[in-house]
């Protein structure tokens, strides 16, 4: 069952010290960490090799604390500033002890991850405003993932693709074995310790509908179709404690023309701050210029989800067309707002009135897309508090957007050692978790760019180390 780099396969030669379920960043960090600590490790990836890696394939960067500028970062980002940012975006809905622990541990991740073969490039600027806080992977998430796999395989970590876990043998908080479906065969794999790093349940539309209702049918799933939450459900059934709200998630506004699954980063739109956003009644519904985009982009999925038919439209003019990274799909254009409305299927008179009302409320200011500028509206509800410029230069453009779900926040509760906790308050004996499946410990709501990869890397490294130590005992 263990997939080798050359594509040949053989059966597992158990028992293993550490079994890692999942194939993304958190899983690979756990596998590498455990292997470097002397453990014999098997990674189970439900996806085929080509689609390995879960949502990591679509990532670009990670947010880590650091005390000084570096070759790739323009200035310091202290632990306290990171924590303040996290408190702000989550509204305080975070386990503060775990959050501070993660942030402190993140300071060493930029070095550790490079030691595993990953390379960084200078951070991007513009609307992302991440040059000081976030480190960008050279070649993106897929390149980063390939380096982690190369390192893991070089250490002797075995990887099995097309290997879906369908049952877990857990007895009173002790993991015994996993039953794995491989084609038509079911295989039992025993291990001394378990690391669950199998993602959330965002690709399980039926589970999303349990919390969201029928509106979830209109959600698009930005990442892998393999994150269906089956491992999370099995852990819950075995008595593992959970934390988080099943309706909370990383949800951004993405191009409505994106595919149902796996559209990735190229369907995200970063132009909200340069225009206005209206629903299909041509009404604005939130302040488009509330804060720097990386601290607000992940609220727009939920905002659009609350609109009629879960659809909205970003409207802007020619002056803003080249100020942001475009979607894979070209914007819809019109010589006038009325013509644009017709192409969008919106009421031309209502959209024109909305744009004219916005233009009338815009105050003089100095536009600066790199800071919280003084361009704002007065007497408008909702206001636009920054980057407000009149929409008056033809041609006019629009992107239709829908909620794009990246990952969910219902999670297994863990401690500082990434050890799962049982519902009765006891720590699990030999079960650990990392990545999206435990991210809700840190992210009760909200998001800031790059935190997901930080959670996966930090707790993956911890989970692997602790699982290896546990297996020795």
Automatic annotation (TrEMBL):
Cofactor(s) for this UniProt protein: FAD
MF (Gene Ontology): oxidoreductase activity
Domain FAD-dependent oxidoreductase 2 FAD-binding: 17-444
Pfam family, one: FAD_binding_2
Keywords of this entry: FAD, Flavoprotein, Oxidoreductase
Name listed for the protein in its UniProt record: FAD-dependent tricarballylate dehydrogenase TcuA
Source organism of the structure: Ancylobacter mangrovi
